[in-house]
Amino acid sequence: MTPHQSRHAAYALALLVPAALLGGALVSxxxxxxxxxxxxxxxRYPHIAALVLAALAFxxxxxxxxxxxxxxxxxxIGISGLIGAFHAGVEYHWWEGITACxxxxxxxxxxxxxxxxxxxxxCDVAQWTLFGVxxxxxxxxxxxxxxxxxxxxxxxxxxxxx
Length: 162
Description:
Helices cover 68% and strands 2% of the residues. The protein contains 5 helices and 2 strands, in the order ααααββα. It is elongated and about 65 Å long.
């Protein structure tokens, strides 16, 4: 792969990874009824930012400004992956979540208030898994790999052929 091809692949990957993951999230939500919890939303925000940054990079063509936008997009994709790792850990009960959607109602309080304050979608219960990996786990795997791949491809794109 030539440096130009590597750079172009990095730009494309920075656009396609968040687009595919956001598209998958929206399809799972609207076609299959897997509504997002609070931490699911947290994972979507960096992908939205990455999508905007990558689209801006494409509009500027390949150059120094575009490369920086692609790097920022890769960082945003990586952040979504890290949030996905944290969310997956909460789902697998490796650690406790930090949101109200991971806590059960405390006993001894007003039961009606506990029911009314209960979240609609729990963050600590995986709604869907494949081979034991939840959607948050897949986001972690795909986003982390995608972010690293963008940086590697950009690095190869900077090398000059001697």
